[in-house]
Amino acid sequence: MRDKKKTVVVTGFGPFGEHEVNASWVAVQELKELGLNEDIELVVKEVPVVYDVVDITVPALWKEYNPVLMVHVGVSSVASELTLEQQGHNKGYNKPDVTSKCPEAKDFNCIIGGPDCILSHINMALVSDEVNRKENCPVKAVVSYNAGRYLCGYCYYLSLHQSSDSSVFIHVPPLNQPYSGIDLAKGLRTALLCMLQQIEEKNTKS
Predict the structure, then answer these.
(1) Domains of the chain
(2) Whole-prediction pTM
């Protein structure tokens, strides 16, 4: 039955800077075509590289869909693999977005008074191992503890503040450096299925 499906929300970012075509949104759209499991409703959303919009969009997605997993995907010019971010940071967001604004009114923080750092309870090392050992997965993965101090890290922290049990951020490399959009989507699919398994196992034990 449709109403018994669990929901997974995956976001990608819109254009910014040199990324006129953002690899994250291309990969997320390809993932939508691939789908996850039959019992999963996959919702995808493109998010503009704007702090004020992210402030509104992230909580709204949590409220509307109450997902079992919230995955934000962004592009990184220095990435050459799927980069699985283990934690998000609250402070230091002083780089202007595509509207030339930053969260200056909040002293460059995501959330005033929030903890400096929030760890995702999803074990990214296990996810990375799964991606790297899977024979039919065309990409490789690494774990990172620094999602940066731009919209990627900002978005991630906001979701972690909503739920550190089910929030994830994944950086992808630019398109064809070295992976195509469909390759990235296949890697994302492998990673997300492993994450969902972790969540299911944790819920079974609790």
Answers:
(1) 2-205 (3.40.630.20)
(2) 0.95
